[in-house]
Predict the structure.
Amino acid sequence: MSHAHEMSFWEKYVFSTDHKVIGLQYMFTGIFMAIIGGFFVYVFRMQLAFPGISVPGYGEVTPLAYNSLVTNHGTIMIFWFAMPVLIAAFGNLLIPLMIGCDDMVFPRINRLSYQIFLLSAIVLIASFFVPNGGFGGAWTAYPPLSANAAYNATPLGAPMWLIAVALEFVAFLLGGINFITTLMNARAPGMTMYKIPIVCWMIVIASILFMLSVGPLIAGAVMLLFDQTLGTSFYNAAGGGDPLLWQHLFWFFGHPEVYVVLLPSLGIVADIMAVFSRKKLFGYKTILYSVFATGILSFVVWAHHQFIAGIDPRMANLFVITTLLISVPIAELCFVYIATLYGGSITFSTPMLWALSFLVEFLIGGVTGIFLGASGADVYFHDTYFVVAHFHYTFVPIAIIGFYAGITFWFPKIFGKMLSDRLGRIHFWGTIIPFNFIFIPLFILGTAGQHRRIWNYEHFRDLASPEFYNLRVIATVSLLIMISFQFVFVFNFIKTMRSKKKAPKNPWNSNTLEWTADSPPPHGNWPVLPTCYRGPYEYNHPDRESDFWPQNEPGPDPADPDYKSGPATDSGFQSTNPNL
Amino acid sequence: MIEAYLERASTYAWEIDVLFSGIFWLIAVWFIAAEGILFYFCFRFRKQEGEKGQYITGDEKHHKKWISIPHYLVLFFDVFIIAGAIYVWYDIKQRLPEPELTVGVISQQWAWTFVHPGADGVLHTDDDIKKIDELHLIENVTYHYELESLDVLHSFSIPVFRLKQDAIPGRMITGWFKPILTGEWDIQCAEICGIGHGLMPGRVHIKSAYDHNQWLAQQTPTPSSAAYAAVSN
Amino acid sequence: MSFQVPIATNRSSTGIPTSRLGVWWVLASEIVIFGGLIMCYLMFRLHHESWSFEAEHTNPWAGGFNTFVLLTSSLFVVLAHQAAEVKDTVKSVRYIWYTIFGGFVFMAVKAYEYTTEIMHGYTMFKSVFWSFYYTATGIHGFHVMAGMFIMWMISRDVKKGKNLHRVEVIGIYWHFVDVVWIFLFPLLYIAK
């Protein structure tokens, strides 16, 4: 299905309903927002390491500005970078192609979801330019601070921040409905449930998790907005309300949210690992069941963020148990991924380097969470830099490593060109090594009792020693190095797009359906939509000459109980990449 | 490990430190094993001439057990961690031993008001001593603290005690501690409370009973009703 | 450029039509939103004795009448769907309009309720009970009006014989709006 007539620039690139265009719109908007979020962290880390400095490109950092920088860094990275890139961009780009259909099932709602998302980004950015600037009450926005301009000093910034977040939620609810319905209903003939690539499952389960957890917070956000703008007292103790109500509503969403962003990254890593170790994913069903278990458990752990918040201390014990339990399916996922490497034939391409480093770094994030889930220890560690280091060891692998893994892997399909592998490696090492040198010092500072969201540690005698300042400087300098190496990626991208060399259809010899479309796929994806004959991870099947077995190649399915073993299942498919 | 950076100045500080170290070593075993195996597999199964990848589904029992056994081991380790966490939590947060003295902690944007009992040893009487940003305590005395907030959420944190408790407007929250060392350390606000969140450092001063009484004698009392009233205005 | 429906939209790996599947997921997200709001109300109500005194001043006759109106309008939308199934577009459009009219009556009664309550001093700021009352019924009312608007749009298509499958979809949405009211009514009007 293709349009016979010429489309204008506006129809093709701005108001398109094509999932690939919308996916790229989300991706570039997300990257733009990440640059803003990254600029903010550059500014406040300079202030922390060199208090009182006039930060190049910004100026002096006041306490008001500091709070706003910290708040918006967190808010942007989660809602305007991680989610749009991992769920909306990769979801849009990959799901229709990987399940063998021509678009999402509701293309106009898809376009609407991006437009609402874009509006949310504009509202947020606008909030930085109003009198007194953007909201500075942390991404968690606890009332009464967030509810009352007399307390937070940002009378316009606070409601604008809230409206931007609410709009983003609506955009992702709409987008999620598309992903879920498309995966459920629009699959290629023959693609049964267990033949779906893991990344598609993950994005859809993430959308469901998001949808089921964000509802109470949307209700809560309406109540907070009314407190801010109308003067109601939902969260005001003096008026009969309860500040703690917001915390419960927020974290009931907040905890599943971290799995909402984790799952797509896990999916990307799984698909890359299968391709570059030339091995069937170990325990496809185990992965699915572990993810379901994690998803369900994620709804009953939320108060571990509130152990010392003034909740009934007896309740805390319940949440310790559920929180420690959730480490079990996640550990299982790590084991299963590592097991996929066993017996493989591993090529360390750039995407594979990113995928492996995800595991290495996320393991650190995962195990350090256990300290925080143990309520007794959390009494000390809550609100310290230990928490900051923990969640960056989970979030950076999720958002940054996962993003680079996905973009370097699917780049040939999306953009029709091959990125330079050499530049990719330089970018990889230049990102990963400094990353660790940012956050290991922060673990140490947190263990020494350094609390969060404080503009200048010179005021705290126990924290103002030269040794601690050295750690802060190491973290900041490492951040500067890490940021500089991102230009290598930008350079790689521009150089690649300007080169005339086209990418082949399937440079990685992958089984999944998207690699059977042109690079890049046209509107409608294929002239004839493919049929699916087997699962996505049939690599190195003993009955095959070739080490892969594309899903769309007619023939038997080895997972079928009636499958008869034996040679002559090879269609003689020739490898296009001599290096694999 | 925490003790490498901060002394243990309360009776329960050692519990938190030991819990942390205990979890650390338990996790270190898993962490080193997982990372070690990961790196080993990367090395051992790197692409080599003549070696093809194996076809393993992960559904066969002899493969699955390599996942199941660690899975149950993790659960087993978790039980110990849960037990340790609940034990420490109970001591700090659930139980409330009889106090010898009580102090009032009033948090606001952006200062701490500490109300100390005067020579009569009783809080909420006319000889209470009100200090801004300074908490004066006697070594080896069991204290209750009565924590309040006048405006937004704050959090009363004394790292050297390993103590932390959020303050909620409209509520009074009671907790306990017993200092075991003399000296002077930071008090931090541990919940973002506006522009001055980083500008309300406090100091805790722990002295022997004799030294504390010397200090007390030099203070001007603020009648308790006035102490609380003045702060709220 | 006219929009062309992709092949994906008409596929059905589950056997359920895409539009119906989509609207059920919309409902799932709405259920959690209203559910969250109602949970907050319940938590507050159980902890504050004074709320049952505040609740004395909601108008159960108006609320009861509105319940009847919404239930009846749900019946009409079912009849509209039945007519659409047999391609009787004239009948279907008529029943859709009866449903819209039901929504209109509901909103008119609400307007009357709000006016009298505010005139008696029961504003949104009187207490957190009233803040909830206006917020919950307000968000619900917004969903009623959105439903009315969408039904109007669909009736225009049905009149031309197009997109008849959408009558069922908006019907499902309307039933949901009805069900939310079935929860709000006893919580806000009956429990005194």
